[in-house]
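Lab notebook, bench 4. We co-purified these components, and the gel suggests they stay together. Before we commit to crystallization screens, I want a quick structural picture of the whole thing.
Request: model the full complex, all chains together.
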Amino acid sequence: MSAFFAYVESLGRGAIGSVSAVGRTGYLGLDAVRALRKVSLWGPHLLPQMARVGAESVPIALFIATFTGIVLALQASYTFTGAVPLYFVGTLVGKTMILELGPVLTGLALSGRVGANIAAEVGTMRVTEQIDALETLAYDPVAYLIVPRVLAGAIMFPLVVILADAMGILAGLGASMALLDLSAPQFMRGARLFFEPFDVQFSAIKSITFGVTVTAVGCSFGYHTRGGAEGVGRATTRAVVISSMIILVLDAFWAAVLLT
Amino acid sequence: MSIDLVDVHKAFGDNKVLKGFTLSIRDGETTTIVGGSGSGKSVALKHIVGLLRPDRGEVWVDEHNIGRLDLESLYRLRRHVGYVFQFAALFDSMTIGENVSMGLRRMPDFPEEQIPDRVAECLALVDLSGYESRLPSELSGGQKKRAGLARAIATRPKYILYDEPTTGLDPVTTAVIDEMIVRMSEELDVTGVVISHDMKSAFRISDRVAMLYDGVIRIDGKPDEVRASDDPIVKGFIEGRPELMRATT
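Here is the predicted assembly.
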């Protein structure tokens, strides 16, 4: 019986912890919005953060997109054999990369790369009192640390995702030409068949929200870190897990809102 | 102009750390707050600069009630308060020169072209001339503390708060840091508040010593008065005799 109560208590503690984490993140979000007007504090850090969040993430995003494009082409060909004209491989690769796998896989990969990096960096600054030091030197830490990171995420994620979309389609084209009996014009005919310019907008809109999610969750868990190196490790892990979960929820949300 | 903490209460969950902490810091003096580890000394210090807000009570700095100040006013006030952190809290991605210049860049009236000179001057005051381009990771523990002190004095603050400035240092480096605290008081005419549990150091640098025990100030006076106290808690702490303190509690 006592084990049961202990279990219920731990569930309760977990629920309270989750609610307070949401509350803390909400307050931090409000502070970040208020801090937007302090351009002199976040402005000089925006470009370096855009390079870190965006430019440095391009190789991993392209790597993932390349192999995703290849696999999509091969699986489409396997599925369509004998039933659907092979040029529909281009349709499936194009649509799937742009609408779903480009943004989601890139978002998930960057939640590990960017989100973990931000949570660890900001968390280390918290536990070594560097954030307190910023405050005593009259710097608003939200404007100085959080605003440029979240803005960089919002600006750079869509660019990285569009590059990844393009790379995935090119890789699918390459695989179709090399491994399937499909020419480039045939592949492109399929890719253009159901293409809508809105598809790219949809991909970009999703990516912006993923970028804000990954950077804001990383910042929030880092900013509220407690308990030395172990706390930094815990914050980093939670930032990756929570932002990955939110990305998947947002993915379904945008599909329901914009595609139905 | 002074610092006054009046009946300050602060708890973290069930842990009541300050239970009516009252202390006046007089202008131009160096006051050391001593007390055992975990007694709440650093918590009291953080209230002065608004890093923590009291659950109850008031903290007055230059006639401003810290608990009632909005964020912008608090940032303005902080330009007059230097804070030396226990482990220096230097920004590890910046050079020592950049660290020291951080506060100056938040002073709207301070000319940009004078920043390098002021940085060099502050580093010279703490015997770190020529260290501008070094990274914090290239410095020893004592050097980091001195660099933290240089950063705190760069804006020429009226008050400097030192959070355990000599903890973890060897006796010689401790004496050097003590000497610097005295020098800051004399040469820059600043009011100092030092947190320490090193009694030798406290008696060496202080105009006044206050002892924090069980969330309140147990004694507050000149070093000689504190040294001569008959209170077994104070005596036990100064002489490092826990049996005296246990007999009272």
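Chain A touches chain B through eleven residues (CB under 8 Å). Worth comparing against the SEC data before the next meeting. The two ends of chain A are 49 Å apart (CA to CA).
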